[in-house]
Amino acid sequence: MLPDDERSLERMRTQLYAPSTSAFFSYNKVPWELHVRKEVFSPGEKFGDPLVLDLVFRQIYKDVMSNTCIRINRHECRAMRNKL
């Protein structure tokens, strides 16, 4: 059974912001990196929506076939490539 705070996370839905037409500034040649983390799922989690299942599979497949994935190490990549 999930605690109340985890249940509220399960019910949470997000929306994309509409594209903006206002001016913006960007940086180039910066000494820092920004890493954005994708949504996380647990191995035992059940997905009822076929679209969600497809998106999770595509994320795993892309990470496993990429040589530059930072989420899993080379040993895990090799093991997953053998399974796929």
TrEMBL record:
> What transmembrane ranges does the database entry give?
none
Q: Which residues form the Unconventional myosin-XV-like domain?
A: 39-83
> What's this protein's name?
Unconventional myosin-XVB-like
The organism encoding this protein is: Priapulus caudatus
Lineage, uppermost ranks: Eukaryota, Metazoa, Ecdysozoa, Scalidophora, Priapulida
Q: What gene is it encoded by?
A: LOC106819706
